[in-house]
Amino acid sequence: MPQRPKDPRPFKRAILKLSGEALRGANSRDNISPEIVERIALEIREAVDSGLQLGVVVGGGNFWRGASASARGMDRATADYVGMLATVMNALALEGALQHQGVSCVVQSAIEMKNVAETFIRRKAERQLDEGKVVIFAAGTGNPFFSTDTTAALRASEMGADVILKATQVDGVYDSDPRKNPDAVRYETVTFHECISKRLNVMDTTAFSLCMDNHIPIIIFDLAPEGNLSHALRGQPIGTLVHGE
């Protein structure tokens, strides 16, 4: 089994997956916490200054969840489109915080809305990453029935990213739900095949298949503790590394 790389920056280009809930904070009444977004922007700036090429995929769960709305009777496609618009709000908030930190960045949306974001064009996004810009991918894939986890896997594949950094509210992958089982064991590293055979909740099936087929490792870590994002972006040991054989 491959060991976690020891180099402090083992990857040149990464996709950071941020959940919408991560932008709100545990005890905040605001959908977006300016303090949390500024902290994320600061840690991103430090990593980008060191030479990392970074794309960011943001979720919209702090505003809306399409699957939940669908379960309550709303048309699923419509509910998912509402969720895509929620990700655009989060992307714009992150863009503003990054600009405040002096980071060159751009929002590319999978749904055309030229007054607030560029429309996603793969070659243009690749060029912007090469130029050192942070590219924030908004509006999911532009299609209903696909999660932002799938968006992260898709954009990582399209951009030729070396890794997906998935920031969550849990400090890695466990053999069972640590919120329900106090004896749950956290993996430092785990293979794609182990995740499948043990039915570990890493990403949804479509996202996971894309990562496995395109040999893109995933680092899953807890965003909440200050400094964790910086450690992850710099490739330092943190959370759980999901990798191929």
Could you give the topology of this structure?
Layout: E1 13-18, H1 20-24, H2 34-49, E2 53-58, H3 66-71, H4 76-100, E3 105-109, E4 118-119, H5 122-130, E5 134-138, H6 148-159, E6 163-168, E7 173-174, E8 186-187, E9 189-191, H7 192-197, H8 205-213, E10 218-222, H9 228-233, E11 240-243
Parallel strand pairs: 1-2, 1-6, 2-5, 3-4, 3-5, 6-10, 9-11
Antiparallel strand pairs: 7-8, 10-11
> What's the shape?
globular
What CATH architecture label applies? 3-Layer(aba) Sandwich
What would you call the quaternary organization? single chain
CATH topology label: Carbamate kinase
Give the helix level as a range of percent.
25-40%
- Rounded Rg: 17 Å
CATH evolutionary superfamily: Acetylglutamate kinase-like
User: Which class of secondary structure composition applies to the elements?
Assistant: alpha/beta
Main sheet characteristics: 9 strands, mixed
- The total tally of domains equals 1
Compressed to H and E, one letter per element, the order equals: EHHEHHEEHEHEEEEHHEHE
User: Can you count the helices?
Assistant: 9
- Low-confidence residue ranges: 1-9
State the name of the first-level CATH class.
Alpha Beta
Q: For the terminal residues, how far apart are their CA atoms?
A: 6 Å
Task: Please provide the count of β strands.
Answer: 11
Give the DSSP E fraction (strand runs of 2 or more residues). 15-25%
Mean pLDDT: 90
